[in-house]
Amino acid sequence: MEKVIIIRYSEIHLKGKNRGYFERVFGINIEKSLRGVRHELRRQSGRYLLENFEEKDTELILAKLDKVFGIHSLSVGIKAPTAMDEIFRAASAVACREGTFKVDTHRADKTFPLNSMEISAEIGGRLLAANPALKVDVHEPQSVINIDVRENGTTLVFNEFVKGAGGMPVGTSGKGLLLLSGGIDSPVAGHMIAKRGMSLDCLHFHSYPYTNLQARDKVIELAKVLSEYTCGTSLHIVSVTHIQEEIHKKCNGEYMVTLLRRFMMRIAEKVAEKTRAQCIITGESLGQVASQTIEGITSSNSAIKNLPVLRPLCGFDKDEIIERSKNIGAFGISIQPYEDCCTVFLPKHPVIKPSLQTVEEEESKLDVPALVDEALKTLETMKL
Ligand code: ATP
Ligand code: MG
Questions:
Q1: Is the pTM of this model over 0.90?
Q2: What is the DSSP letter of 310?
């Protein structure tokens, strides 16, 4: 009898011929998330089993696995040889001593002489005999004893199915570059896309010395939160101070944010090229602020030449985003006060519905390629 954690996949089984690949990446991601914690991971027809871990690490392991995309459900249970006495011993170990229960059996090993109903009845009968305060209730039991008779001579016995993170293993949907500000939205956007199996690099723009170094530390903390879901990430940091100064000097101030956004996109595209990211991800949500009207989005989008821009939050309300931010553990960091580069030289009345033509006219006052090149020279990268 041995304590195990059963890890079931979610959508991976849908992937036909690629199944082997998905399972491999999934296994590697689990190993990465459990680095430093003693365990053994084994693949067993349609699931992974985690064995040889220390009892005291169980909660820690479950917390780490809660952040691994691709997990449909988890169960902490017992692995026993497929024999009725052994199964009963395992069932006794997970059973409550009082209250109502039922036994649910799934039998993958069709060679075992008892069928699933017979196994449930026999184990249930033995449990009742051994625990007078237990009662069977097949409709609304207080606890369930699940028995899963596998093909390889072992049986898994457990109580609960705990919901996993869902989604697909990170790394199976390519790589994206997340524009990570210090705000609430962009970490949530990154989390949503990572959930669909995309690995992430992050790109942050600062306007030091107008923005302070705390803003930078905050973004590092946010990237670390994301990295727990993405098996690590690289954070790229670029200064746009000179660009803002130049816009401030030469252009209509109302266009500060609009023009800056276009520079961000251009720089992002260059960084993506360098890091082989296949798309850009932002935390924009339609109509949320002046720069996120459809006209604002059109303006920033048109500065991008070759890559798609994913905006997973476009249809979300702020309160929905905040709820997600809390769930992923980013909210407490995101709400710490800081100055974003977009608030530097912030005009009293930013243009709300910029026409692309006017934006381009304003932009023609600037040496765009030179400003982009200068920004790229400030690029720093840290691995998290
Ligand atoms: P967030 O909460 O993510 O900052 P927001 O609601 O404050 O979003 P904006 O500040 O308008 O909205 O930014 C929209 C998106 O542009 C952000 O979600 C982010 O993807 C990107 N962005 C804005 N500022 C920066 C920055 N300093 N560095 C990197 N990306 C940024
Ligand atoms: Mg912001």
A1: yes
A2: E
